[in-house]
Amino acid sequence: MENNPGLLPDYPWQYEYKTSQLTQSGKPVDILREFYLPLLQRAVRYDRVAGYFRSSSLALASRGFSAFVQRAGQLRLIAGADLDPKDVQAILNSQAKLDDALLAELANPEQWPEQTQHGIELLSWMVRHGHLEIRVALRLHAQTGQALALDSTADGYVHEKWALAYDTAGNCLYATGSWNESQTALQLNAENIRLDGSWQGNKERQIIASAEQDFAALWNNQHPAFRVIAMPEAVREKLVRFSEHVKMPVELDVKPVTVPPRQMPFIEQLRFQFIRHAPKMPGGEYVGMYTAPIEPWPHQHVVARRLIDSYPSSFLLCDEVGLGKTIEAGLVFRSLYLSGRAKRILIAAPASLTQQWQREMANKFLLPFARVSSDASGLQSETLLPQAQQTIPHLYAADLAIVSTGLMVRKERLANLKQAQTFDIALVDEAHYARRSNSRNGVRGYPQYNNLYKTISEHLRGKAQCLLLATATPMQLHPVEVADLIALSQRVGAYQYDPALMLQYYQLTAALAANQSLAVQERDLLRHSVNAIERADPLLWRYLHEVVVSPMARLSIESWRKQGLEPSPLDKPALPKLLFAAAPLSRVMLRHTRDLLKIYRSNGKLSAGLAERHVLAPPRIVFTEQEARVDQLLQTYCEGLRLQLGNNANQTTQQVAVGFYLSFLRLRFASSLLALKFTLQRRLGRVKQTLLQQLRENAEPLDVDEMQDLLLEGGELDEEAIALLLRNRTPNDLRWEREQLEQLLVVVDDLSPISSKTQTLFTLLQKQQLAADRFRQVVIFTRFYDTLTDIVQRLRTVNPRILIGTYSGQGGSYYDSARQGMVNIEREHIKRMFVEGEIDLLVCTDAAAEGLNLQTADMLVNYDLPWNPMKVEQRIGRIDRIGQCHNDIYVVNLCYADSAEQFVYERLMQRLQDAGLVVGTQQFSLLPVTVEEFQELAEKRLSEKELEKRALERAKEQKAHHQLLETPASHLYETYLRFEDKYTNIPMPITLTQIWEALVSSTWLRHLGCKLSDCQRYMVLQGINGIPDGTCITVDRALFDKEAKWLHFASYGVPVFEQLITYLCTLDTEIPAITVIKGEMENVTLCGLVANALQPDGSVQAQLLTCYQQIDSLHWSDVPPTDDALQRFQQRLQRQAEDEANKYNRLKQLDQVNEAQGLAQRVINNFVLKKLLEDRLKYSKAKDTATDLLREIATLLDRRKQQNASFRASDMPATLKRHTQDATLVQPHWQANGNGWIETPLPIAYAALEAGYRLVEKTRKTKSQLTGTELIQRLERNPVEVF
Is residue 234 within 8 Å of residue 226, measured between CB atoms? Predict the structure, then answer.
């Protein structure tokens, strides 16, 4: 046998081989040596449809396999069952077993002829070593499905014997004909074989393609004339036993089998090298999102693609709770990180969410983020991939870092941020906490930003190429809050510094959508706003032009855009859609609601469940005698402490600290008596310690923002709260506090009586009970860990065998029936147990309020209620989410009668609903109540009547603003369908399916002992250096989600997968026939593989591989490519890298373009305001008081609006010309003498008016003291001032 026989086309095949033929020497043709051995010497894959499953036929089919095994070949063999049709029908009807019939064919081996024994031993050896897989075919009538004999032609189908052989270059030889498979076939074999080669021409390739399709149908049991079944395990075991004692099997003619050399086929080397480098190939920026363990929902797919395409542009991710902002961010992070576009990513989130973010990034996106925390020993960095912890010198040392926003904004940590290396992406979660404190003043209030907003604006924004702000509630009280957030994106052009102008845009758009008439200048303002996007954001403009505007309306819209021509009646509805999509918020804010998902679901594009939410009214819960007594004493303590500290509380921070500490105590009491008791005990200990330490308290005081976060997001413990208000105390007031605490602790010493709230919980759970110890699943939420332990203890006292679990910041636990007690375990395991029905009642703290999917439960109980309505919504979102298993879910809020919580969450909510002001699925997130108002209500400083009045007014404004600002879900759906049609078919370097096909089809992996599971859904690895034998990998997302404890996902970022691919690509340290080339430019690196492909004439031609499909579409040579070819392809990749880098730089510079447009508009507004003030000061009889003049201006503008008139601002100094050259909404007209004038549309004049009110507030003078003249002088001195 030749050592290097070459490829299939290298052999001089005959068109036909017959045993009746004579050679030129006059001897009969030797089928074995002239056909089978040459064929199988060159093949690495062989698909064979044989005759019967019986010893002689199988032995006959084994001919030539000694040569095949030498090349580590892989054989798939389909053999027919030699059965009577009645027996076949019995098997099909499950009345008989196939095992018995097949085992009979392997019986009495001692009676077989020697050749049969050798053939069966060879097949057995191949099965044992992973070279052969056998399936058995049962013959059916193609039309009726009735059983037939294997060779029956009753339905017109002729069962032929044929085979497909493939070499390392992908060439295929198709052999078909007749085999005599009688009992004497091995001695008196007669054959007639015809051949077709894929290299011979189009006709032959078509014949082969048809045969490949037929074999796939047979193998996958999709052929109408056959039922194809995997060889039963019992039969396989018996077949394998034939080679138990065989060390070296032989051919039929006693030719020995050579153990295959350890050399991977060239085409497999090519595949694995391609997999390794695919994310950095052209188009590789999408590989990450499509190879993640999670399948995105339709809207998440669109968001991720848009963010990747627009990188490094900044965005707001504002989906409703439960719609997957984390998924969208993770898909983007994974794609850009794997492709090398983004190397440093920062996630800043509230401390209570940092662990959840880290788990999500590791489990769903396979990203090794380090979570950074601070303790007494310094900064600690913890990673999950791999699990490790270390001390780090710098808060932002890790390239993939997660820090808490509380840690980020600390004054002592700002230096770390200033010194940090630039981040490619920074994401701030719960970004609505970055806000102004005076948002209730609307667009007329000069912003008073909190520390988080200042940190982002003044420090983080300059350190991040791309800023992502994630929040489900971008607007809580007023649209000015959204305007503040979009200003951080630096992508909204003329609206960058002007929230009032943003509202004017939306009012004009709403009027146009309602078919109201607009003045010419108002219509032009909208048109100029849209046109400005073409320069300020070309990618967004392309999206608007190609996706938002339907093809039918495109011509009409272009005429409107360029010439101001009114669209035709048929195309007119397209204009408001465009204006909404081009609006300031829509440019940067990606927001989706359940209404959009309902549309997807109704159109068959989303199969996951969407439940109907029902909020149940619980019975009235009143204090027990003990609770009433505690309430009275706690009130006395709170009022007394406020008085005791009154003399010392002369600083704002101290005054706020008193209020927050007392509010925190009320929250603990409202949660449970046990929570209050433990807090009082800990507080008493701190008071005593402070007295003993001679009043020295060294704890770092919290600032106002941190104390507010303590109430809203402070976590499940009380360490920070009990440390408040111990600095600079007198001995007398400390002793007074000690006495008060001791009195309270006497009352709460005995907690054996069941509280009224706990009794209500028991009653609710009784309705969920299914059997003695089983319940319909319920999730119970509490903020505090102490309350969680109380709930669990009391439930287990009633029923010790109840299947209960806990999930908190302290970890997880569950009732183990075998141990008859609670067992501590990782939280992820608790989640899996609950979803799989092993836990009935899950008691959680707010550590579970984000990211957990608990959709198998249909009831959620809020055992206590936070003063942040959004937190309630986040809790409910654990069960009210896409994929819910039930059609209806139920929410119960437990709170004491006449408490602040009961008023807000029950009575006030009901009144808002009755007024039609709170609608939709996520109503709690719409409650217009602040934490300060909760405090005031709890302390009786705010009446219920006054709060209701405020809430009604705000709710009316909110509803109007939401209707004004949000794009209708139906518009989004239409747009996203066009997006999918246009962009989702763009080819990528590789897909998850292709990765899996490369693994499961690898003859090399099979040779090492790796095998596919019986269910075909995962692969068991064997023989891989550094990976334990038995390690399992899969790309089945559903299976991985269910079995992640022992399965590894076969994708980038998973240590097992990375180690596997690295091993496969480094078996041969040098593969000269495959060359990796790169094109590099700034932050962009593009890779490609170069190899030689065989041409029909036998020559080779170098190919640049950047798409996996190329590998199987060509035939490859192991001849190395020439230097000229490598240089040519490297230059091509270099040009592509330069194009990508130029695109990145252009997008990066757009921040400056947008900022210039925003500043130009600011200058115009300031000048218009100055002229309006001068005009009123000159012609009005009003006093020279700023506020009086502004009221006069408002009256003037209202009058002009009724007249559809504009305002001409003349005598614009030539010095402002350079400041206004980037203006987009309205352009100054410059005269020959140098001065200019502006024909000001009323929306801009109104925006200038609102700016005047902000300027008044900024001066901090009383309204009676500030004159209009002073404002004019200030505007003259600083015409570019932002306020």
Answer: no
CB 866 within 8 A of CB 887: no
CB 204 within 8 A of CB 198: yes
Query: Which is higher by pLDDT, 778 or 187?
Result: 778
Q: How far apart are CA 494 and CA 1161, in angstroms?
A: 5
Query: Is 628 a residue whose pLDDT tops 70?
Result: yes
Q: Which two tokens stand for residue 977?
A: 């369908």
Which among 66, 57, 78 has a CA at the least distance from the CA of 134?
Answer: 78
Report d(CA 622, CA 975) in Å as an integer.
53
CA dist., res. 81 & res. 731, Å (int): 97
Q: Are strands 778-781 and 841-844 parallel, antiparallel or unpaired?
A: parallel
Alpha-carbon distance of 76 to 92, in angstroms, equals 23
Amino acid 416: pLDDT: 92
* C-beta of residue 530 within 8 angstroms of C-beta of residue 579: yes
Q: Checking DSSP bridges between strand 345-349 and strand 387-392, what pairing results, if any?
A: unpaired
Helix axes 673-692, 785-798, angle to 10 degrees: 140
Owner of token pair 């050259």: 1221
Is residue 701 within 8 Å of residue 652, measured between CB atoms?
Answer: no
Largest pairwise CA distance in the chain = 127
Distance of CA 1102 to the CA centre of its chain: 39
Q: Interior CA angle at 562 toward 559 and 565, to 5°?
A: 45
Question: In whole angstroms, what is the distance from residue 364 CA to residue 332 CA?
Answer: 12
Alpha-carbon separation of residue 545 from 110, 512, 524, 539, 598 (angstroms): 79, 20, 19, 10, 27
Give residue-wise pLDDT tens across range 1029-1047.
Answer: 999 999 999 999 888 889 9
C-alpha pair distances (Å), 624 with each of 334, 488, 629, 637, 751: 54, 51, 9, 20, 12
DSSP string, 227-260: EEEEPPHHHHHHHHHTTTT-SS-B-TTSPBPPPP
Count of CA atoms in the C-beta half-sphere (13 A) of 574: 25
Structure tokens at 235: 């039969």
SS (HEC) of 762-817? HHHHHHHECCCCCECCEEEECCCHHHHHHHHHHHHHHCCCCCEEEEECCEEEEEEC
pLDDT tens across 792-820, in order? 999 999 999 999 999 998 899 999 988 99
State how far the Cα of 756 lies from the Cα of 410, in Å rounded to an integer. 42
- Is residue 921 within 8 A of residue 880, CB to CB? The reply is yes
The token pair at 1126 is 């490598």
Residue 996 belongs to what H/E stretch?
A: helix 992-1000
Q: What is the pLDDT of residues 84-130, one digit of tens each?
A: 888 888 888 876 778 888 888 788 888 888 878 877 887 888 888 77
pLDDT band at 851; cut points 50, 70, 90: low
Q: 173 and 165 in contact (C-beta within 8 Å)?
A: yes
Distances (CA, A) of 167 to 5, 45, 268, 269, 998: 11, 7, 12, 14, 16
Q: In this predicted structure, what is the pLDDT of residue 184?
A: 43
Percent of the chain's residues with pLDDT above 90:
56
Edge-to-edge strand order for the sheet containing 1229-1230? 1207-1212, 1236-1240, 1229-1230
- Give 611's DSSP letter: P
259 has a pLDDT exceeding 80: no
CB 38 within 8 A of CB 5: yes
Mean model confidence pLDDT for the chain: 88
Q: What is the Cα–Cα distance from 1055 to 366, expressed in whole angstroms? A: 9
Q: Measured between alpha carbons, how far is 1133 from 856 in angstroms, rounded to an integer?
A: 50
Give the model confidence (pLDDT) of 729-756 as tens digits: 888 888 999 999 999 999 999 998 899 9
pLDDT of residue 919: 67
User: What is the rounded radius of gyration, in angstroms, for the C-alpha atoms of the chain?
Assistant: 38
What's the pLDDT score for residue 214?
92
